[in-house]
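step 4 of 6: structure.
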Amino acid sequence: MGSGRISLSERWLRLLLRLYPADFREEMGDSLVEAYLDRYAKAAKPGLGLPLGGMWARALADSVRNGLGERLRPAVGWRRAGNWGRDAEVALRRLVRAPAFTLSILGTLTVGLGAFAVVFTVVDNVLIEPLPYQRPGDLYFVWRDYRAFFDLNRGWLGGPDVAALDQAGGAIAAAVGLRRDRRTLADSAAGDRDPEEVGVMLASPNLFTVLGVNPILGRGFAPNEIGPDRPPVVVLGHDLWRRRFGGDPGVIGRSLRLNGDLFTVIGVMDRDFHFVRHSSLGPPEGAEAYINFAYRLADRPAGSGAFAGLVRARPGSSAEQVTAAVGAVGRSIDREHFNSRGLTLHPVSLEQDLVAQVRPAFLLLGLSGIFLVLVLTVNLATLLLARAVRREREFAVSRALGANQAALVRATLAEAGLLGTVGAAAAVVVAIWGTRAVVALAPADLPRREAIVVDWRVAAIMLGLGALLGLVAGAAPAFWASRSTLSMMLRNTAVRGGGRGRLRRSLVVVQVALCLVLLSAGGLVARSFGALLRSRPGFDPNGVLTVRVPIGQWRYPDNASAVAFHARLGDELSALPGVLSVGAGSAIPLTAGTDQSDVVLPGAPGNTGKREHDAPLADLLQVRAGWFRALGIRMLAGRDFEPPRPGSPREAIIDRTLAAEFFPSGTATGTRIVIGQDSLLVVGVVDHARQYDLHRDGRPQVYLRDDDDTYGALYFAVRSRRPVAGLVSEVRAVLRRIDPTIAVSEVRALDGVVDDSLRQERVTAVLIAGFSLGALLLAAMGLFGVIAGSVARRRHEIAVRMALGADRNRVLRLVLREGAGLVLLGAAVAVPGIYLSGLRMRGVLVGISPFDPLTLAVAVAALALVSLAACYLPANRVGQIQPAEALREE
Amino acid sequence: MDRERSIERFLPLRPVEFNILLSLAIGDRHGYGIIQDAEARDIGDVPDVGTLYRGLRRLTDQGLIRASGRRAAAEARDERRNYFGITPLGRRVAQAEARRMLALSRAARQSGLLEAGT
């Protein structure tokens, strides 16, 4: 009876033991139960009626408390960190013991993931991040398509177009007209000292409401603040407010001067408001201050385009609906103002438009980044697998000694995961620095440039990605570890290798293929960039300093006074020591700064009688004599401008492309060119100085003599035999002496302008070149690992061969043949990849075919060379095998 | 001095740990024997069985006690039980703990919490 009760107690106590963790139960369980039973036995003796229930309850309370306590705070040291902690500890120890392996993996992860994160950050910010406006998907820019007249599908709108769009209704909720101007800002309170030129946005008063943003100080524009009687009010951008007014909240109500006119500050925009007005031809431009039009848009002449049109669609309208609504407005404009000759209007979504230029290059970069990460993962897997194979015996012995399968898998995964996480952490650091470097290199007009930083989100994604990559790459060897048994091992002693070798070899083939695709892409981009650098833009940028000299009508009200100022400035600059020539013009090459107009060359032999051909759209530049010499633009025929004499005709000079089209055989000089109402005498032909892209000609160019009707704000170009930097202070001094109220700006070397125009291409080239070199390195490492492993595994076989009389070279060839086979196979696999990437790259490359045989051959040769080296090093060890010794080992 | 610091590291002990070391300082015991000792000392804090065995495992892990093998119990149905013994380190730790307690009681006396002589 007593024993029955005890056995019942024992059963209860054993049940309670379940509350403790397994290892504690195994070690202490029996003793624990015995101690309880002893205690019950002792307690049971004196009084039989002892409440057994009470004891059981006490045991329950004890077990709950200590069982759970033991699970939370284990008594034994290694358990305290949990099993994963122990695995990590063991993995760490193992990794420290194999520094070459660890460093190679960490290195590849750091470089690979870091590069990937840089690209991801930039692409994410530029292509994916939403614009900081309300419902940015409903915003569109509208352009005139002039292609029925001449080759321009992205022309400015006329004022009536914007007014009609705003009134259109339907899918269009509202429209804003925009112009960007540069004006000289002077703080009237400071007595007009320290003038500076700032970008000013002239806009319809509903700009801020259409964007859905509010000033942080003061107010935006009222709907009636437009037209000839509008109050002169200005909203400041955040940067200007900080720079000019020290961030003073009391700025509201203060006045300032823009080009001499008084304006009252009514508001200040937020720090992250960086609205840019997209351009008909050049890059988007931002502004530091916002003012309203002093005229009604509907009153402007419809014939000349002057405004960017920003349209907000009604919520829920599709792009097609907006296109239809805009098209309808276009048709009525065409009917009313263009005799239905075929002018159309078309909308472009703000986001698409903003990134349209950089998108191809960025997509290419993104794809390259993904390729790099693929190569990285494969490499990781190869390295880990090689290591797993080397540790095969260790696995098998552990398992034979009773280590459980889960523990082995866990240990292998822990090792890989740890590597991945640590590598990713290092990569985050690389990415932060790399992103800064790329942004510094990037073109100043890169969309949302200021917002591009590695944020915590990207860092977290990278850490996760690193761990994931580690785990994925570790899965193969973990699977491996779980399978190898001692008997298998022992059976395999003689013929090690076999099936697992195939897995590793296929990994290397994949890696070689991926690497070759990246290498060929990198080679193509590099050669394309080389072609860009070699391209001849039609002018000579070396040794030229350019400076913008904005003189306003408020200081030089008539043509004579402005021209006199320009002449005096030109003379004084020419007198500076070392100066070779001085010129002045309305736009600097490669900055898309020209005006455009259609021109007619009456009587020219090239005329065809078709209006679209005979009235081409040309870039107009106004220059002073000496401009061509200063910029190194070759004079092909005729002469430079002469000073105007009373009664002499106005003069023009045309460029080589216009001359070739309209005067294919004869000479253009002495003929007439008609621009608008004016007929000008063509006195010369010059080379085509590229205004847009470094690598290709733009539209035809016509130079007008600035003296005839000055442009006002001209760029002065000073060519000297002295270093450009040394000239800056002297040029500034001259300007200050002549007129201290001029806000000189854009003082820079012309070769810097050329450099700037190449920035995006340079970033792309540098990144892709880096990617492909990284991939090459990774592939070499993978190949090295495989061949080294193969040599180690075939030691026995090789020894037998050598003992049977094979000489060293023969054996060496045998091993090298294995590597060469892998590379060839990889190259074959790469062919479709190269083809597809070539198709993708077509829009990015300049002056080179995406299937350029030379480049592809060089890529293959580079890969072959590096692979050969990677194979040769381990293969060479063959020579060190002493047959007798190697055979004795077995 | 390094050894002193290594002993300091264990202090203060939990009540159950000090109880275990007190018993094992006399001689090897099995688990229930330690409980019996604690009951005999009659100063109130008799550990629960679960608490005791966690303490035993912790002290074993720290090297203050060791399992001294299975042997027949002196009493109770002649079963073979797990015995534990104190290690030299365990003895030094127990001494240090006792000295610490003594110093504490002295301090308590000086601040009038305990009457002199108790």
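step 5 of 6: annotate
 - Chain A has a mean pLDDT of 84.
 - The interface with chain B takes residues 20, 24, 27-28, 30-32, 34-36, 38-39, 41, 58-59, 62-63, 65-67, 69-70, 75-77 of chain A (CB under 8 Å).
step 6 of 6: archive
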